[in-house]
Amino acid sequence: MLYGGDYNPEQWPEETWAEDAALMKEAGVNMITLGVFSWARLQPGPDTWDFAWLDRLLDLLHGHGIAVDLATATASPPAWLVRAHPEVLPVRSDGVRLEFGSRQHYCPSSPVYREAAVTLARRIAERYRDHPALALWHIHNEYGDHVTECFCAESAADFRRWLRARYTDLDALNFAWGTAFWSQRYGSWDEIEPPRDAPGPVNPTQTLDWRRFCSDALLACYQAEKDVLDEVSPGVPVTTNFMSMFKALDYWEWASREDFVSDDAYPDPADPEAHITAAMNYDLMRSLKGGRPWLLMEQAPSAVSWRPVNVPKRPGLHRLWSLQTVARGADGVMYFQWRASRAGAEKFHSALLPHGGTRSRGWAETVRFGAELAKLGPVAGSRTEAEVAIVLSWDSWWALEQEDHPSTRLDLRAIIASWYRELWRRNIAVDFVPPEADFTRYRLVLAPNLYMLRSETAERLTRFVAGGGHLACGFFSGIVDEHDHIHLGGYPAPLRDALGVVVDEFWPVPDDRTVPVESAVAGAAEGTVAGAATLWSEWLDVTTAEPVASYAGGPLGGRPAITRNVHGDGLGWYFGCHLPSALGAVLDAAGVRPAHETPAGVEATRRGEFLFLLNHTDAVSRVSGLSGIDLLSGATVRDELELGPLGAAVLTPNPAPER
Ligand SMILES: [Zn+2]
Fold first, then answer.
1. The Beta-galactosidase C-terminal domain covers which part of the protein (predicted)?
2. Among 223, 327, 485, 489, which residue carries the largest CB count within 10 Å?
C-alpha cells in the first residue's frame, strides 16, 4: 500500500528538507510525488536548466527508503515562456485571453507549449530514468482543471485538422452538423471556427464535435509526453491524475493510454452524502482499466481551500474515507500535500504536516493512519467482482447536456448518482462500462441515461436481453445517433424490441414540482415502485411491455410510468420518469446479491477475500452473520461485529480453524 503525497520542497529552504524526510519516515510514508509545479525552478530560462536541487532531493528520499513518483512539471508554464510567446495563453469563447498568474495557463493546441512541455519531460526523464528512487512517472497535473478548451486561432486550425480527419469530405461534415438548418452550410474548411460566443444557440453537433476535439487536444498533449517517457524510461509505469467523474475528458479513452489509473478525490465533509458520491467515483476509477487497482493520488487530510466554505474532516472521518478508497480498489492513499504551504493560493489547504507542525491533531492522524494502512498490505492487488454494470458514455453526456432540449435540468452525473445510491445502500457491487463493453459478463446492465445511442450499441443491448440479461434504461435514452440526429419512428426507436415501449412525447417536470406514481401491479411489488417523480415524465405507450407503475394524477394520469418487457430470455425495464427508488424491483428481479447485509449507513464491499465494513454514521452499529479476523484491529470476529461511530473493519477469513 502506497502512502505519501505531493511534496513541494521548492517552497521551503533546503534546511527543512532533512526534517521533512525524517518526519516522512516517522509517518510511514513510502511514496512522494515530486516536481508537479517545478517548471520555473527546473528551467529558469529558455536555455537554463537547474537539476542539482532535485538530484539532492531524490538522493535524500532514497536514503530514507522513500520511492518517488516523479512529475513532468508541465502544468504551469513559466513566466519567461509566456512573455516570449504570449500566444501560449488560452483564449475564452468570448475572445478574452487569460493572463499569467495562476496555473494551467496554456493553449492545448499551441505548438510552442507542446514542444516546451515535451522538451522538459525529456530532460527530466533522461536525468532520472536510472535513479533508484524513481518508481512512477506522473504526467502534468489534472488535465482540464481550470482550462478545458481554448478558442484561439491556433486551436481553430487544430479543430479544422481534427474535423478533416474525422469527416474527410465537407459534405459529410455538412450532413453530420445538419447545416441545412439556419443556413449554416460550409463551402470550405476555412470557414469553420470553434463554437465561440454567438447571437443565439450554436449548432449542437458543432458543439459536440468541439467537446470531442477538446478532450482529444489535451490527450495529444498527454500522449506526446507519454511517448517520450516510454522511449527514454521504458518499464516505469506512467499515469496522470484524474479528477473523478469529470465531464470534459473522455476517461475511457484517456485510461487506455495510461499504465494505471490515478485519481484526485475531494469529497466535501459538509455534504452528508459525500461518501456515496465518492464510492461512485472510486468504482469508476476501478472500472476504467477493467477492474485493475488504481491509486488515490491526491486527497485532503482535512479541509480544502477552494470551496466557498471549507469544512474540515471531524476526527475519524479522514481514516474512514481513506479506507473507503482502498475498499473500492485503491492500492495506495496519497495526498495534496505533504507540508502545508506558507504562501500561495492553497496555503489554507490541509496537509499531512500542518502549519502547526507535529503538535497538531492532523499530524497525529497522519502518523496513526500511516501505521494502519501498512496493515492492509495483503489487500493490494485484489479485485472486486460485480454482477451489475452502469453504462457511462462521455459522448452521450456531452450531447445530453446541450441547450434547447425538452429540459436543461438533466445533469448526467446527478442522474447516475441517484441510481448508484440505490445500489450503494444495498451493498451491491457495480462496475462502470463504456457502450462498447461486453455486457454479457453481467446479470444486470443499468443505463440511467443514454441519450445518444449508436444503433450498434442498441443492437448489442437488445441481444443481451434476448440472451437472458436484465436491462434497465432511464428516460430520454436512445434518442439520437452519434451525429446528434434523432432516431425516427417513435422514441426510443433503437431499443423498441428490448423495452417494448414507444414514447409519444416528453413531459419534463418543472422545478419544485413532482408527479405522483403508483404501482400498476397488485401483490408483492405493490408499494415498492410508488413515489413522487421529479425532473421528467413522458406520454408512454406500451407495445409488448407491461406497466409496473403508472401516473396517479395530472395529464398523464393512468398512463404507464415504469414498464417491464420480456424479450427472449431476459427483461427490459424502462423508466419513463425520474424515480430511482423504484430500482429495488429491478434489483430483486435480477437476483443480484449484496456483499453483506448491513444496517443503514454501514457500507460493505468486497475486494477478493476481504470484506470491508465502513460505518458512515455517528452511532454504534452492529453487523451480524460475520466471522474472520479484522486486519485493522487484529481481533477475531465471531458472528457479530460492533463498529463504533465512523468505525471500520477489514475482515479476512480466519486462516486456521480453532483447536
Ligand atoms: Zn488555443
1. 601-652
2. 327
